[in-house]
Every structure is written in structure tokens, then in C-alpha cells.
Design brief:
The chain contains 4 helices and 5 strands. With 136 residues, the chain is an alpha/beta fold. The protein has one domain: Phosphoglycerate mutase-like (Rossmann fold, 3-Layer(aba) Sandwich), CATH 3.40.50. The strands form 2 sheets. A 3-stranded parallel beta sheet has the order 2-1-3. It has a two-stranded antiparallel sheet with strand order 4-5.
Amino acid sequence: MIDSERMLTAKGIKQAARMAKWLRAHLPDDAVVLVSPARRAQQTAHELTPDFKTAPELGLAASAAGILLKAGWPQSAGTVIIVGHQPTLGETAALLLTDTVQPWNLKKGAVVWVARRDADPHARTQLRAALSPDLL
């Protein structure tokens, strides 16, 4: 089976549902959800909202820099949710928080929420939350 066609397991669906419930309670209503075209990412996003946008740039071959570009970081004025894949999401979190691409290992279904007070590229990135589904 092609990796992009792999589906979530039953455990993965439960994890996505738990994380989606937590996110819905904390996210602003106008958050934009950008999703890899891979089937399991689509399933994950659907647990959060049916109103998401598929972004081929977030697929299995994505890079940390490419994810930030697609998200409009740091210029985007609103909240952008990325549903993608490891190892790129871990590398993206590392880049945001340390200014270096590093091989951070994120658990499947985890959320790393970062923010900036303004679009100034020299402003500090703040870690708002880092959760894995087993903590919910």
C-alpha cells in the first residue's frame, strides 16, 4: 500500500477525536486548518472540523521551511492549524522554538501550539501547549 493511502488505526481515530475535542475547546472560531493530502491526515482533520483546506505542500515530502511558508508564519494574523506528518512536524516545532531544524520526535496525534505576539521576525516564539493524546 502507498504510504499516502494508509488509514488511521482504530486507536488513531480515538486519539484524533480526543485531541480534536481539546482543540475545539481552546481554539478561536476563525482558525484555519491546513491538511496534508495523505488519507490519515485527512481523517485526523475531519475529527476536528469538516471545514479544512487540503494543501499538497504539507504532504509526505514536506519540509519544515515549506510548512512555515504555507502557514504564512510569522506574518499570518490568525491561528493556523497544520495537520501533517513526522518527522517534518517535529522538525518544524524545533525550528520555531530553537531556530534550528532538529529531529524532534512527536507522538502520533500530538499537538504543539506556538504563538507570537506580532509578525516581527525577531519577536520571541512562545510555546502555548505541547500535548500528546494519551495525556487527555
